[in-house]
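INFO worker-7 received task bundle
INFO bundle size: 2
INFO processing item 0
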Amino acid sequence: MEILIKRRLIIYFILLLIYILGLLNFFFPVLRFQYQIANQIFVLFLLFIPWILVVKGFPLKSLLLKIINVIILIIPCLIAIPFAFIIFIGIVTFSYQYAFMPIHHLNLKSSFITAYQTNGGATTACGIVVRQEKKIFPGILLVKQLYKEYPREDILIKRVSDNVIEFGEKRFVLKRNVYIP
């Protein structure tokens, strides 16, 4: 019985770690899937983790720990509901394709530069996000955001040399492995 409780706690803390790292990656992108639909499904999974953690917290021995678990996780659970609904509708209607649409692509020796047009949401005009991306596993990209501007509808990316690109009036010296020279 004690081994079962230890396994549940290990699973609980692994899910908690995935949730925290996933949220950090959502706001400060480092890893992304190559296909936008996979990113959407992963975020949908991420939004259900607080619900799973609430259920996984019930076998805790102490009533105080159960109450603390529910109190801490109730806000992420309630916040997750509308976001999960919006993401699910986006997946079903394929509107995720227009929210973050690649418009320019530039291949480099070890990575590539992609410019995305974002829809900006309901209250903002279109914007541009430029990222350096490198495949680290099939379907998984290491990502570094180079530039972001709202409002803007298009951008021209030029290669100046092997590791230097230019767009607008900005010039960037790129690292070979995105973050590591």
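INFO item 0 finished
INFO processing item 1
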Amino acid sequence: MINQYIENLQYKEALELLENMEDEQTRYYRLVCLYGLQDYQQAKKEAMQAKMLAQDTYYDVVAMQLSILKELEEFEDAINIVVEELSMPYIPYQYETTFDTAYDELLLAKQEMNQDNLTNATIFDLDDIESILSKEQTNEDLLYLAIEQMQKLNIRRLIPSIRSFLQKNSNTAFAKSLLIELMIEQDIDEEFIVLKDGAEYDINPSFAPMVLQQDFVSSVLELLSSHVEDDNPSLYMMCEQFANYYFYTMYPKYIDDLEVSLIAGAIHYYLCMLQYMEVDLADIEASYHVEGQEILDMLDSFKKIEF
């Protein structure tokens, strides 16, 4: 009967039957009903008691407690609970996944709450940022928010987390370049290993150029401008934007002057394809003085770039 009431969203009727407060299942169902009735303050109060009593329902009660605190916008308390649970030696896999997701959602909700004061607000503290950088599967929305926050911080305490992030091949290449640029701006004089697409690079930020200040960047853009901008300014703008994404993705790979024409020609050809514009590969070959097959070979690396 109680399950049927809950399934039919008849929470008030179900709550009237849930009177045995010594039974952990009853306490859990009461949380479900109170949450459904949007009585979050009472649900918060009962959640603390239910958690102390819970054994078989422990993780379900914790999940409900997090949902209740999120509705009350008590994000710090909820985040602390998630961190505590995820730090336990053992947690069932399905709940670990649930709490990982909840952690990301809570940090995003915390960020949204502070959105009006974003210019001066410290949305993430150093511990939050360390956790984001260290996660096995990083939420990219959180990652880029954290990197934005890091622009206002002294990041030296975060160096171990940044070092680990740069050495994990599966982490997004674009974010790695942003982190390197942050260290360039703060004159971090240390050696780092960067893994991108299976290749390993050594870099010391204090001696490294910013991504778009490398000499070949202007050469590629000038070449694209001479062949595209006058005829199609909109296409040139897209080529320029894609080129910047490409440079950030490839950094700190060294690009030889001999590759400039190939990169420019391949970007021109690829953006025409993306826009369903008619383009003859032979014309690109002639304009940029490169081999068509070399351009086609570059397209595989372009397809990996989120644009």
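INFO item 1 finished
INFO post-check item 1: The chain has three domains: 2-113, 117-208, 212-302.
INFO post-check item 1: The longest strand covers residues 192-196.
INFO worker-7 idle
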